[in-house]
Amino acid sequence: MGQRTVKYVDATIVIPCYNHNELLLGALASIAQLRPLPKKVIVVDDGSDTPIELDDYPFPSSLTVIRQSNMGLAAARNTGLRSVSTHWVMFLDADDELYPGALGHLPSDKVVSNIDVFVSGYTLQRDGEKSDVFPQIGDPIAALLRGNPAPVHCYCFKVPKLQSIGFDETDELHGGHEDYDFICKLALRKSTFATIHTVSCKYIKRSGSMSSHIENMNKTRVKVWTRFFLQCPVQSDNQVMAALSFFKQYWRHIAQFVPEKMDAVTEHLRKCLQANASNSAEIKFMLADLPESLAACIWPADSQIQAPKPLHTLQHELLDWRVQEVVRGIALQRFHTMLRALEGKQEIRSLVLWGANDIAKMLLTISQRLIRVIVVDSARAGGQLMGSHILHPDEVEFTSDTVVLITAHRYYDDIYSHLLSNGVNKERVF
């Protein structure tokens, strides 16, 4: 029986290496197991104390070592990128590894693809524990405004767009996140992204590695995000809520590391919310933990929703897993906030979920074994949701003790006003 022909894909893997000579062999061994194989592998020796020698190393692809003085990770990646002649390129750190199918999704030489960037999942290994992570990139602008979706070796890039961009070699990002900055630049140039739902690599976080230097990482994260956000043509509710989500988590770091940008960021957030926001329930929740003065700058008291989401958009989002996880995540946070706010103050005898939808179904699953749950929906009254009868609002006696979680996001403001006019305590409406 003849030997099976090894297939190659028109791709190069660039590996920067600084004093990780022994770990580099593990990375190369993982590449040798790839199917298909890359045509070329370029190792950039970034001034290692012991020079990397691979002249006699048996390898199934073209293997090149480029030596340079120690210039840093970004410069090493750029050195490798300048030497790439294939259609696709992937970057792998010397202390990480690829799984056999990491290049299996790349189009063959004869296939024309309109995709500029493929991104796949990864196994995060830290302190002896492993977990698989799948980046959620539907709209790349929204994904990047939420934060850095994935390490750089989860990406395969079409080469022509990259060589004019390159990684930032300035001292500004010396602490890390050069890869996050690189992806943001691609998104601003309207590159097309595709998510591959498979795990392609192992990302190992070691003590002492660059990614473990917390203060530097915090600083560079907000520097990259701030620069990206202020250049972004934010054009949708999902994008502005992604930005607000990041700001809610990292506003203290922005104030600490880029204080000169704080006013510009809050003003840009305010304008983006005024132009694109469609759900005041989400906005109020996201701003709740901010200092009142800061929240007022972003969403003044007299602010109003300009463009509620049309029904067809909401229907699409319920079917879109990338958006669904964000919406559900916020709903769960609101539910948790409700429980925390009421804990120890007053007994929750019953909970009203206003809006018989998928979010209500999820919350019903969580809460119905703990407390009595009433589902209210004027459009679906008389039906059932997971065995619970759906009531019309007129059938429910609302009192000051009633606890309501509004799941009908589109009608949040109208429902909220209706409840307050019927004597419900606003501190018990979520």
From TrEMBL:
InterPro entries from the UniProt entry: Glyco_trans_2-like (IPR001173), Glycosyltransf_2 (IPR050834), Nucleotide-diphossugar_trans (IPR029044)
Protein name per UniProt: Glycosyltransferase family 2 protein
Transferase found in the keyword field: yes
Gene3D superfamilies reported in the protein's UniProt record: Spore Coat Polysaccharide Biosynthesis Protein SpsA, Chain A (3.90.550.10)
Residues covered by the Glycosyltransferase 2-like domain: 12-106
A molecular-function term among this protein's GO annotations: transferase activity
This protein's UniProt keywords: Transferase
A Pfam family assignment: Glycos_transf_2
